[in-house]
Amino acid sequence: MKKFRFYNNLAGWLTFLVAAIVYILTIEPTTSFWDCGEFIATAYRLEVGHPPGAPFFMILGRFFTLFAGDPANAAKMVNLMSALASAFTILFLFWTITHLVRKIFIKTDEYTIGNIVAIIGSGLVGALAYTFSDTFWFSAVEAEVYATSSLFTAIVFWAILKWENESEDKYANRWLILIAYLMGLSIGVHLLNLLAIPAIVFVYYFKKYKVTKKGVFYALLVSGILLGSIMYILIPGVVKVASWFDLLFVNGFGLPYNSGVIFYAIILIGFIIWGLRYTQQKKKVVYNTILLGITVILIGYSSFAMIVIRSSADPPMDQNNPDNVFDLLYYINREQYGDRPLIYGQTFDAPMVRNKQTKPVYVKKNGRYEIVDYKMKVEYDDRFTTLLPRMYSSNPIHVNEYKKWVNLEGKEVNVQNPRGENEKRIRPTFGDNLAFFFKYQVGHMYWRYFMWNFAGRQNDIQGHGNVIHGNWISGIPFIDDARLGDQDKVPEHLKNNPARNKYYMLPFILGLIGLIFHYKRNKHDFIVVMMLFILTGIAIVVYLNQYPIQPRERDYAYAGSFYAYAIWIGIGVSGIFDFLRRKIPATFSAILTTLIALIFVPGIMAKENWNDHDRSGRYTARDIAYNYLNSCKENAILFTNGDNDTFPLWYAQEVEGIRTDIKLCNLSYLRASWYIEQMSRKSYEADPMPFSLTHDKIHKGNRDILPMIDRVGQPVEVKQVIDFVASDDDKTKINSPFVRNEKINYIPTKQFKLAIDSATVIKKNIVNEKYSGRIVDEMQWKLGNSYLYKDGLMLLDLLATNNWERPIYWAMTVTSTKYFNLQKYFKLDGLTYQLVPIETESERFYIGEADADVMFDNIMNKFKWGGIGERDIYLDENNIRMFSNMRSNFGRLAEKLIGEGKKDSALMVLDRCMELFPEEIIPFNNTLLSVISAYYHAGNNEVATQLVKRLNDIVVAELDYYFTLEPKYKKGPLEINNEIQTNLYILQELYNITSQNNQQAMSKQIEQHFLNYMQQYR
Question: pTM score > 0.70 for this model?
C-alpha cells in the first residue's frame, strides 16, 4: 500500500509537471480576444467586470499580477495562473482515475506489479489525454475563468472520493466541509462547479445507504434540491433579503445606505454562531454539519463583497455599478442579458399580448431608494406556447435558421396584429422543438464539440452547419466522406488549416471501452461519473437553450463533460489490460497497454494539437488594440461595440496605460444609465463625455426608448432636439405606446442638422487645413427608425454639446446600424472612422474616405503587427479575419495615394502589405482584390498578375469542390450558398480588374470560368 501511494503521488506530480510545462510553453504572452482583456484589467485594477462577476478570480489574478513587475507582463501572469490551475486540474484528474481504477482491481491488499502499473498507466493516459484535448488546452493558455473553474470541479470531485475512502473515520466529514467551502469560493469564479453536486450526492448515498430504486430516486431528488437551492435560493436569496433590510432601514428609518445590510449581516452571523454552538452542544452531528456547510459556502460566497466595495469607489470600469444591494441583485442575476424560456414558454412567432409590470426598480436618490420603473414581463398568446420551447427567438435571422435546421410541421394560425389586421403565423409543434433540440442544440452545439476533443477537428473556422467549417472529423475516410463529402477534394487552404486535427477516433474508442468496462465492473462509480458527464454536458445544453448563429464557438461551456469522459479514457486502459492479462503475463500486459495507449491517444493528440494551441509569441490582440487607439487624435472619443473591439482596448488602457487620454465608449452599453454616468466621469487623462442630459433625465426607466415622429418635415438643429427631449412639459410628451395611461417623451423629427463653424473646426485640429475648402456649412442626416434608443439619444446629445472640442471616432468593426446614418461624414484614419464636417468622397464598397497622409503615417510608422513576420505564430480565425480587413485597408490607402499622384508611396504600402500578410499567414480571399487593383494602378503589373493568377486558382479549386458536392450537402443548415456567392463575386471582380487594366488573355480565361460556374449555379 505504501509503495503504491508513493508511485501514485510521484506519477501524479509527473503529470502535473508535464501539463504545466506544456501550458507555460504555449501561453499567450499578453491578452487574447474575447473576455480575456476585461478579466485581466479587472484583476490588475480590481475593477468590476461584466455580470455576474468573478470576484474570487479577480482576487487570484491580482495576486499573480503582483509578480509582473512591468505592467506589460501582467497579462502573462494571469495567463500563467490559468496554466497552473489547468495543470493542477490534471493532477487531480490523475488521482481521481487511479482511485476509481484501484477500486476495480484492488479488493483486498493485492498490490501486484501488474496492478500497480495498470492503475498508474490508466491515470497517465486519461490525465494526459485531457491535457492535450482541444477545449481544455485552449482555456489553459489564456486569462479566462474556465481553467480556474475546472480546477474547482476537479478538486471537489477528488475530495468526495477522499471522503469515501475515510467515511468510517470520525473526522471524515471534514472533506464535506472542504467541498462546501470550495463550492462557495467557486461561485466567485463560475457557477459550473455547482453541477458536480449530484455526483457528490450519489457518492454519499452509495457509501452510506443500501442501494434501492426508491433510494436512487430520492438521491436524485435531493441532489436536484441541493443544486436548485444553492443556485436559485442561497446565491440570490442572501442578497435579496439584504435588500429588504436596507429598504426598511433607509426608507423607513431614515438611516444611511447599506445600514440595513450591516444589521442583516450581524443578525445572520449571530444566528449561524448560535446554531453551530447549539447543534454542537446537543450533539446533533448531521444538523451541525449541514449548518457548517452552509456557513463555509457563505464565507466563500463573501468574495462578492469585493464587487460592492470596488464599485463604491467608482473605478473606470464599473459594469452595472453594483454599489448597493439592489444593483448587486440585478448584477448577480444577469438581468441585463434578459431571460429565455426553459421549461415552458413562447415560440418564435408568438404574438405579444401585453407587457406586464412586475417588480419595482429602485435607484439611490436624495438619501432614499426611489422607484423609477418596473420590470416588464412580456405575455404571449397561449396558442404559441409549448413545453420545452427550443425555438423561441423572434430575431428574423434566427427564425430563418430554425427553418433550415428543422422541417417545420407547425400549423399556420390566424392572429390579429397591433394594427387590427389579420395575419398568419407559424406555431411550431412540440416535435419541431424537440427536432431542433436534438439536431442543433445537442448535435451541433454539444456532440460536435465532444467529437472535436476525442475524434478530430476539421478546422478552426466557426461552423454554423455547412460541411466545410468547424465540423468534427476522424481522419478515417469512409466516416468523414459519408458525413462531409470527399475530403480528398477539399480546397488546399482548408486542408492546410493548422486546426485540421485527426485522432482517428482513438480517444473516443478508448473512452467507450472505459465506459463499458466501468459499467460492468463498478456500476455505482459508473453512475457517479455518468452524473458528472450528463450534468456538465447535456444538462447545460438544456439550460443554455441556445439560438442559432452564435457569435463564437461555445465548447468551453462543456469542459466538465469532457473531463468526465477523460476519466473513462483512463479506465479504458485498465479495461484493455484486464482483457490482455488473461492471454499474456499481467506485468507485461500492463506495460504494453500503457505504452501503446500513451503513444496512440495523448501522443497523437499532442502532435496534432500543438501547432493550433501554441500561442507563444502572439501579441495580436494587444497590438490591434494599440492600433485602434493610435488611429485617434489626442483627447478623442472612440465608439466601439463588440467584445473584440472593446475588451483588448480596455486592457491596453487599464493595464499597459496605452493612450489613456482617449475616452472609450461601448455603444451597446450606452443604453444603460449606469454606463452613461461612468462616461460622464473623468478616467485617467480622458475627460468626461460632454453630455448635457443630467442623471434625473436619463436614469433607468426614463427616456429609455423614444418614439420618432416627423412632425417638422425638415432638418432640426440637434441642440433644439435635445432641449425638446429634456423638457418635462406635458406638451413635449405623447401617450406611451408601451404602457397604458403613461406619457413619455418623443422626438418630433427624423431629420437632423448641425451648424458648422469652419474656423473652429480647423483651429481645434478636427480636420487638416487641406480640407478647408470642403467643410460644409451644416451637416444633415436622417434616421429612418420609428424609435430611438438611449444610445442614439446620447449620441445626439454629444453632437449638440461637444462643439468640436474633441474628435469623435468609430472603430471600423462597429456595425453600420450604430453609425446612425452619419457615415457620409466619416474619414478613415487607420482602424477608425473620424466624424468630420466634410461630405467624404464615396469609394466603391467602402465606408468613408481614406485620409492618405494620416493613414500612411499610421500604417507605415505607428502600427504594430502582433509578432507577424518576426516568428512563426499561430493565427486563428479571429486573428485572420482582423488582418484580412487590414489587408483591404492597405489596398484602400494605396488607391488613395495613387489618386494623389504618389505611386511610389503606394507601392511601398502594397509591398509592406504583402510582406506582412503573405498567403501562408493570411489566406488569400476577397480582401486581396483592392491590393491587386492598386498594384495595377501603381504600374506593377507583374506582381498584380501573379496575385490574380493565384487568387483565380484558389477560387476555381473552391468552386470545383462546391459544385462536385452531392445535393444532400447543399441543403438546410449544411448549405454553402454564401461561399459559392463569395467566390463568384471574386471571379467577377477579377474579370473587371483585368479587363480595365488591359490583361485581355487573363480576363477571358476568368470570364469563361465565371460563365461556366454561373451556369452550374443557376
Answer: yes
